[in-house]
Amino acid sequence: MLSIQQMHYILALEETGQFQKASERCFVTQPTLSMQIKKAEDDLGASIFDRSRIPLELTEFGTQLIPILRDILSENSKIGLLKDRMHGVYKEHIRIGIIPTIAVYLVPEMFGVWQRKFPSIQLTIEEMKTHELIEALEQKKIDLALFAGPHHDPVLQTIHLFTEEIFAYLPNYSNDSIPVQELSEMQPWLLNKGNCLRTQMISFCEIKEGEKTSRWDYEGGNLEILMKMVDLNGGYSLVPANYPLTADFKRSLKQILSSKGTSPGREIIGCYPKRTIKKEYCEKLLREIQLNYTHDSKNQVQIIDWKG
C-alpha cells in the first residue's frame, strides 16, 4: 500500500515532469524522491513512469493511477480540516484560477471585499488561460475558476456572474461607434493564441488568420501593450468594458456594431466541481462578485463564444 508521502511524490513528478523539480517542490533530495517512487512501483507491481521518454511520461498504468491518487489525497485532507474546525483554528483554503483579462480589474477590486467579509477564508489566486483553468479544475489543482463563458460540463457547477461589453480601441476614429465591417480593413492587434479574448475578437470581427495576424506574435496578456501598438502603428484592438483605463484612454473606446445592431460581449462565469466540500465558500465568493458587478451594458450585447 502506498503511503501518503509517496502519493505526493508521484503527483509532484507527474506535474513537473522532472525528478529535480519534483524533489525541490517536495523539499527532499532527488535520490530520496526517486527511491520512494521506485519502491511504490515495486509494491504496486507496475511502472508508473516511462523513464525512457524525455520529458518523462506516464505509462498506461500511471495514467489510470494519477486521478485515483488525487481523489485519495483530497479525501485525506478533509481529516485535517475537521481537526482544525474542532479546535477553532480552521481557515478554508480556496484556490482560484482566473484569466488575465478579468484578473486585472476583478482581483484588485474584490480581494479586499473578500478578506473583510470572509476572514475564515484563505485565498490563493493564479492567472491561467481558459483551457488551463478547465484542466486545473479536472485535476483538482484549483477549487474555483473565473473566466469568460459559456462553458457546460456535467461535473461542474457554472454560475453566471455578469455580462461585459467589448469595445474597440480607436484613438483616431471620430465617431462613438464603428460598424464591424470597417474593422475588417484595419490591422488587428491580438493577444497570444490560447487567450479567449483573441478568439472572440477573431470570431466577431470576422478576422481571417493570415498576413494581418501573422505579423504579430505577442506572448502575453497585457492589453495596454496592444493599445500602445495601436497608438504607434494604427489599427485597433479590443478592450473589455471593465478594464481599468484613464479617462483619456476611455475616450478612445468605440462601440462596435454588427449588421444586426448588436455589440460583442462576453459572459463572465464562475465554475467549481459539483462534488466539493468547498461549495459553500465558492458560492459566497461568487455572490460578492455578482453584487459588485450588477451593471450590465445598456447596448444590445451578443455573447461571443471563446471557443470560436
CATH architecture of the largest domain: 3-Layer(aba) Sandwich
Q: Poorly predicted ranges (pLDDT <50, ≥5 residues)?
A: none
**Order of SSEs:** HHHEEHEHEHEEEHHHHEHEEHE
Structural class category: alpha/beta
Report the span from N to C terminus.
46 Å
CATH homologous superfamily designation of the largest domain:
Periplasmic binding protein-like II
Question: What does the radius of gyration come to?
Answer: 23 Å
CATH class of the largest domain: Alpha Beta
Any idea what the shape is?
elongated
The number of domains is 3
Helical fraction equals 40-55%
Mind sketching the topology for me?
Blueprint: H1 4-16, H2 19-26, H3 30-44, E1 49-50, E2 57-58, H4 60-86, E3 92-98, H5 100-117, E4 121-127, H6 130-138, E5 144-148, E6 156-169, E7 177-179, H7 180-183, H8 196-204, H9 211-214, H10 223-233, E8 237-240, H11 247-250, E9 253-257, E10 263-273, H12 279-292, E11 301-303
Parallel strand pairs: 3-4, 3-5, 7-9, 10-11
Antiparallel strand pairs: 1-2, 5-10, 6-8, 6-9, 6-10
Q: Summary?
A:
By secondary structure, the chain is of the alpha/beta class.
List keywords for this structure.
308 residues; alpha/beta; Arc Repressor Mutant, subunit A; D-Maltodextrin-Binding Protein, domain 2; nine-stranded mixed beta sheet; two-stranded antiparallel ribbon; 11 strands
Task: Describe the protein.
The protein is of the alpha/beta class and 308 residues long. The chain has 3 domains: 73 residues, Arc Repressor Mutant, subunit A; 98 residues, Periplasmic binding protein-like II (D-Maltodextrin-Binding Protein, domain 2, 3-Layer(aba) Sandwich), CATH 3.40.190; 101 residues, 3-Layer(aba) Sandwich (D-Maltodextrin-Binding Protein, domain 2), CATH 3.40.190. 44% of the residues lie in helices and 20% in strands. It is built from 12 helices and 11 strands. Strands 3, 4, 5, 6, 7, 8, 9, 10 and 11 form a 9-stranded mixed sheet that branches. Helix 1 crosses helix 2. The mean pLDDT is 86.
